[in-house]
Amino acid sequence: MSQSSIVVENLNTFYGSRHILKNVSLTVEPGEIFIIMGGSGSGKTTLLNHLLGLLIPTSGTIRILGKDIHAVSALERQALRTRMGVAFQSGALFSSMSVGENIALPLREHAELDETTIGIVTRLKLEVVSLAGFENLMPAELSGGMIKRAALARAIVMDPRLLFCDEPSAGLDPVVASSIDDLILRLRDAMGMSIVVVTHDLDSAFKIADRICVLDKGEVLALDTVDAIRRSDNERIQNLLNRRTEEAEVDPDAYLRRLMGEKERSTRFGPQARKGL
Ligand SMILES: Nc1ncnc2c1ncn2[C@@H]1O[C@H](COP(=O)(O)OP(=O)(O)OP(=O)(O)O)[C@@H](O)[C@H]1O
């Protein structure tokens, strides 16, 4: 069997005396789309920062592409990072540079390529994310969805073996969010890299995930396939899934009844209804 792209073993993190990540162990396999989910404050960003080598664990190990990210030399760590692409939630494009310049930046910093080749690679990657012809626009001229696409183009410009996406559909309307999901699936199929996605968006997670890691208060509550997570009878997982239902589905009649001070009659959100999720 081929080597896992990421292996995390017994990761513990403290912020001061607060135990934030508790004995987290997981693997991410080659070509897998691996989702990290969990409620606010559950530790998703902290875990992502660990996978990127930006935080030092209190205890435990993190192996990226076979290397312990904190045991290697600074030079090796730098080399590892060039094999990892990151698309940040905000896009994190430089506002003073055109879209094309933003995407070319990693090539200029890390690859020894002439300007013609940099231009070709940049335009190729823009094409991959359906932004061909937009290279001369400035980030401020892009829509929210286009910013996410440009951020993905920059993240893949070095042909990474690992791609990390932080809340790729945050702030987008459902149609645009779904097109970003499709793009993530397409990137994995075309480039074969492992993709780690941090998201709050359950629909997106269910659509693109091979496996989902559910964090709860810094612990791995579940780590399994989409089907297994959906079928889980673990109450905490069901609560997490149902939170989405309650937020997403506002029953206007029930709302009015509540405002009128009537007792809830509808069983729509009752325990039986939840089981049908
Ligand atoms: N630099 C820090 N110093 C102290 N505590 C922190 C720090 N960063 C995060 N925390 C705490 O660690 C816990 C986990 O935070 P984290 O940002 O990883 O959660 P999250 O799941 O990404 O949340 P969200 O979805 O709201 O972004 C939270 O209780 C948070 O308050």
From TrEMBL:
UniProt GO MF annotations: ATP binding; ATP hydrolysis activity
Superkingdom of this protein's organism: Bacteria
Residue ranges annotated for the ABC transporter domain, each copy included: 6-242
UniProt xrefs under PROSITE patterns: ABC_TRANSPORTER_1 (PS00211), ABC_TRANSPORTER_2 (PS50893)
Keyword Isomerase: no
InterPro entries for this protein: AAA+_ATPase, ABC_transporter-like_ATP-bd, ABC_transporter-like_CS, P-loop_NTPase
Pfam families for the chain: ABC_tran (PF00005)
Keywords from the UniProt entry: ATP-binding, Nucleotide-binding, Transport
Signal sequence coordinates: none
PANTHER family documented for this protein: INTERMEMBRANE PHOSPHOLIPID TRANSPORT SYSTEM ATP-BINDING PROTEIN MLAF, PROTEIN TRIGALACTOSYLDIACYLGLYCEROL 3, CHLOROPLASTIC
Protein name in UniProt: ABC transporter ATP-binding protein
Species in which this protein is naturally found: Magnetospirillum moscoviense
